[in-house]
Specification:
Layout lengths: L7 E7 L6 H4 L10 E2 L2 E2 L24 E4 L20 E4 L7 E2 L3 E2 L5 E2 L8 E7 L8 E5 L2 H4 L14 E2 L9 E9 L1 H7 L3 E8 L13 H14 L7 E6 L5 E3 L34 E6 L23 E7 L10 E2 L1 E5 L8 H14 L9 H6 L2 H6 L7 E12 L8 E12 L10 H12 L8 E3 L10
Length: 463
């Protein structure tokens, strides 16, 4: 610990449901404490109660934590300012449901405790709120989104290089290049995906080229996307005709944003061209889409891959040689940039397994019988792998004032508290925990305060 460039980590689950009169059926006491979420709040509760919390129907002893006086190991009142800047101990209930394995090996429900935390030696305190992943959405040409007040910084290649209302002439072939970048494409193809799509506008009726219905060009490009083996796993196109009406790929049953039902009459195969409308243009919306590989709990291993990165889509109109700079192309506008999610339950499970391994509670990855015997499924069931969690981090050190080497040294510990979020789109964490940590740290002569790290979601406009 003291001789490595990383911290010893411990994880404390605060995923338990709120304990109150309605859930426990009894008044609060030091043997039946109340909680807000997974944080115990009944003062003077001994830490040993975490090992045998009363569990009425719907409750379990797993997922509760509290802050205790290191001299008495009684729960401190998190609302009292008298505990500010005082050393504390963080303790949580065990993840394992049985105290013994067989007739001899026991103690598995012993509480999980930190070292004594002196706030003067806290080096960092922060929480990472949940972040719902966001798909990439790109508009090509004239769509209702590019007609709205737009951010110039969101145009691919800048606003001066292209126009959103592009006039397509008969007797021409127009080329659209689409690049798909990111981990999903790299893992599938060993390189980023890129394809050039072509759309022929048909023969001219006379010697002078005239403008054609640009919707047919967009449908031609979109039709190539959904049959292209390199693009169809990652890109879902929606066509907008010159009147601004959305048309979907054949077989589409729900809108990719609103989840509203899509009828066959809305598929672009049902589109009948009325001809080109002067000063009207069509467009194309590209939605980043992929399906990650996720294995079930039964076959779960800590080395299982879990995809987190959304794909990035780049689009540009090019000439027949593939050069996008020869002529003025059609605009590509980033409606929403892809946003990688945070707080995935799948990652929390893996970190929990690592933390339990430090406690000598090892997880059997390959032998499912041994996993069952050693309560390995209690680790995977303690966290919902499909949910999102806010994570609190507390980095502190324990100085070694008496070191035989004569060198002042200290051990560093990274403590992590996991909080379940009811609404990941509006994460709040645990407000009582926020207040306690803020008051506890602010009264010390340190520069450390509780910080919040989150993300800003982009809400794409409906089709």
């Amino acid at each position: 610990m003291a001789y490595f460039n990383h911290s010893f980590s411990k994880m404390f689950l605060g995923t338990g449901a709120t304990r109150n009169l309605a859930s426990t059926g009894a008044a609060a006491s030091t043997t039946n404490p109340y909680s807000t979420g997974g944080m115990l709040i009944t003062p003077l509760t001994p830490s040993v109660v975490l090992a045998n919390l009363p569990t009425p129907a719907g409750l379990t002893h797993t997922g509760y934590f509290g802050f205790f006086d290191p001299k008495t190991y009684l729960l401190i009142d998190p609302t009292l300012l008298t505990y500010n800047c005082c050393p504390i101990v963080l303790a949580s209930s065990s993840v394992l449901q049985k105290d013994k394995i067989g007739p001899f090996h026991g103690g598995y429900q012993e509480t999980n405790k930190s070292k004594v935390i002196n706030p003067k030696y806290v080096q960092n305190a922060y929480k990472v709120t949940t972040c719902v992943p966001q798909q990439t959405v790109v508009s090509v040409g004239s769509t209702p989104q590019t007609l709205l007040p737009t951010d110039p910084n969101k145009f691919q290649g800048g606003t001066t290089a292209a126009t959103c209302c592009f006039e397509f002439l008969c007797g021409e072939t127009y080329y659209l290049r689409i690049d798909v970048k990111g981990s999903p494409a790299l893992r599938a193809l060993n390189h980023n995906a890129y394809q050039t799509l072509d759309a022929y506008t048909g023969c001219c009726a006379g010697p002078t080229p005239v403008a054609v219905d640009s919707t047919l060009v967009m449908i031609s490009w979109a039709s190539e996307i959904i049959i292209n083996n390199y693009l169809k796993p990652f890109v879902l196109p929606v066509v907008f005709d010159e009147a601004g009406t959305a048309w979907y790929a054949p077989g589409t049953t729900v809108d990719p944003i609103t989840n509203a039902a899509v009828l066959p009459a809305q598929w672009w195969t049902a589109y009948i061209s009325p001809g080109h409308v002067p000063n009207a243009c069509a467009g194309l919306r590209l939605f980043g889409a992929f399906v990650g590989t996720v294995f079930g709990d039964c076959t779960f291993q800590v080395t299982d891959y879990f995809e987190k990165e959304p794909v990035k889509i780049l689009a540009s109109m090019v000439d027949y040689t593939g050069d996008p700079c020869v002529f003025e192309g059609i605009c590509a506008y980033n409606d929403c940039l892809g946003l990688q999610g945070m707080g995935f339950g799948d990652q929390v499970v893996k970190d929990l397994i690592k933390a339990e391994s430090y406690l000598q509670n090892f997880f059997a990855s390959n032998d499912l019988r041994i996993r069952e015997i050693t309560q390995g499924y209690d680790m995977t069931s303690a966290i919902n792998r499909n949910a999102l969690y806010t994570r609190y981090f507390l980095l502190h050190s324990v100085p070694r004032f008496n070191n035989p080497t004569g060198v002042f040294d200290n051990d560093r510990y990274m403590l992590e508290i996991i909080i379940a979020e009811a609404n990941p789109l509006a994460p709040v964490g645990n407000t009582d925990l926020d207040k306690f940590l803020t008051n506890w740290l602010s009264s010390c002569a340190t520069c450390v305060s509780l910080e919040t790290n989150g993300c800003v979601h982009c809400t794409p406009e409906p089709n």
